[in-house]
Amino acid sequence: NAGVMQNPRHLVRRRGQEARLRCSPMKGHSHVYWYRQLPEEGLKFMVYLQKENIIDESGMPKERFSAEFPKEGPSILRIQQVVRGDSAAYFCASSRTDNTEAFFGQGTRLTVV
Amino acid sequence: GDSVTQMEGPVTLSEEAFLTINCTYTATGYPSLFWYVQYPGEGLQLLLKATKADDKGSNKGFEATYRKETTSFHLEKGSVQVSDSAVYFCALVTGGGNKLTFGTGTQLKVEL
């Protein structure tokens, strides 16, 4: 049973480009959470999604960031017009229900140059 | 809002030494408390948890006790091994669910 798969593991983007981060939850999991870890900081909650629905996006920056979890396929975190301050590690977690343990992926390290 | 404060790292210990990583929190309501571990190149794994005051979570020789009076959840291990080298994160959640609030993480390095 594969764990939570994130890709790419490392992503380099120039300022102004778009970044797409993918997260495939564990089999049987329909709840996905995205977290961001800025340098020297802890992980910060960004967004919580169920299939085709955004449940809680209270941690998402108001502009340039969006997330989706379609009926088929992985969850996508999309960052438009990236800036240097977006450089961080982005972690995805999934759970079977909203009250069972969440399992984390290995993260995607985004570097904006 | 909720917050978690961890002792800063890196922490370097010799094998078989005693480990303490301090964690204190502020939260509205009654949080559940967690320790996660991240081994090099891997994702975060749940190490242990406690859901109410005076509960002790334990796993792989690690322990932490939920202290409501001091709002703390310190991680301890009596004898560390080289294989324990990792980054340790303290976290909490209030109201159930998986919207976790994390500390900044403490890197542990264990040497022979």
Describe this protein with a few key phrases.
heterodimer; A: 113 residues; mainly beta; four-stranded antiparallel sheet; B: 112 residues; six-stranded mixed sheet; globular
Explain how this protein is built.
The complex is a heterodimer of chains A (113) and B (112). With 113 residues, chain A is mainly β. Chain A is 0% helix and 50% strand. In chain A, the strands form 2 sheets. In chain A, strands 2, 4, 5, 6, 9, 10 and 11 form a 7-stranded mixed β-sheet that branches. Chain A has a 4-stranded antiparallel β-sheet with strand order 1-3-8-7, with no helix packed on it. Chain A is globular. Chain B is 0% helix and 50% strand. Chain B contains no helices and 12 strands. Chains A and B meet through strand 4, strand 5, strand 9 and strand 10 of A and strand 6 and strand 11 of B.
Number of helices of chain B: 0
> How large, in whole angstroms, is the Cα Rg of chain A?
13 Å
The dominant shape of chain A is globular
Number of helices of chain A: 0
Give helix % range of chain B.
under 10%
Overall structural class of chain A, as computed from helix and strand content, comes to: mainly beta
| Main sheet attributes: strand count, strand direction, barrel closure of chain A | 7 strands, mixed
| Biggest interface, residues from each chain | A-B, 26 and 21 residues
Task: Provide a quick synopsis of the model.
Chain A has 113 residues and is mainly β.
SSE topology:
The complex is a heterodimer of chains A (113) and B (112).
Chain A: E1 5-7, E2 10-13, E3 19-24, E4 31-37, E5 43-50, E6 53-56, E7 65-68, E8 75-79, E9 88-95, E10 103-104, E11 108-112
Parallel strand pairs in A: 2-11
Antiparallel strand pairs in A: 1-3, 3-8, 4-5, 4-9, 5-6, 7-8, 9-10, 9-11
Chain B: E1 3-6, E2 11-14, E3 19-21, E4 23-26, E5 32-38, E6 44-50, E7 56-59, E8 62-65, E9 75-77, E10 86-93, E11 101-102, E12 106-111
Parallel strand pairs in B: 2-12
Antiparallel strand pairs in B: 1-4, 3-9, 5-6, 5-10, 7-8, 8-9, 10-11, 10-12
